[in-house]
Here is the input.
Amino acid sequence: MEVNRRKMLGQQYVDRRREISTNYNPLHPHIYQLQDSYFVKEFLDIVNYAKSKTASSEELVKMMSIENAERVFSFQIFTKTFCKEFMEEITCFESTNLPKGRPNTMNNYGVLLNELGFDEKFMTPLRINYLRPITRLLFPDWGGDNLDSHKAFIVKYKIGEDLALNYHYDNAEVTINVSLGKEFTEGSLFFGDMKWVPVDETTCTEYQHKPTCAILHRGQHMHGALPITHGERYNLIIWMRSSETRNKMCPMCDMKPTLVKTVGYGDGFTKQSDVSLCSPL
Ligand SMILES: O=C(O)CCC(=O)C(=O)O
Ligand SMILES: [Fe+2]
Here is the structure.
């Protein structure tokens, strides 16, 4: 039953990807290919430092903001121009009648970026060449040095549509969450504790997103998004996965996964494009 559902989801992805690549005319074709010029200098400095032979996590975090929640770090990543063009691209795609898979069962809006064609030349080099040197130092215990796949998507909150996101953990070892804009009030992220800590023993802290900035956290660190009270909020979310870590235990059901072949990265369980039978969010 679950195997068939998985196969059907895989086929739906292939069909949507084909239909979108045939019929969608990108508004800003250049942004589908990652370039250094999309990043602010401070972020490139962080990456260069992280790549250096003598880099240490202690020195690396001094180049970032350390947030109130444990092991949550923030830094500016993209330029304003890039964020604007990226959001214009998403808005342009949203306005079409082309098919759209939604990021997960918690979001009714938003866009899966692999369907739009952002994986090969944008998200994959971003993960390998820029983010992994950082996660290698900050999250070695969560497969930070071998995050070998990802699921990248846009979440969107707007008055009259989705306003907030329930308290949850991600189907990820490490998550990066980038605020793209547009203009919004409220809508802070809140962090509790790791998922195995009872809720009544948890104290939450808030983080107010700032457009162009990224927040990096462990996927199993419980969090949610408070309602926006005005405007529109778009965020780029990349759930980064380590097959080595999750092949031993599925982060969603805490059991050893049973694998079934799929297309694309699936849920990131092996390097051979297989997917677990565990249900994602
Ligand atoms: O809305 C946000 O900033 C958080 C989104 C999130 O946590 C998720 O999609 O997993
Ligand atoms: Fe999340």
Notes: The chain has one domain: 2-273. The radius of gyration is 18 Å. The chain has a mean pLDDT of 93.
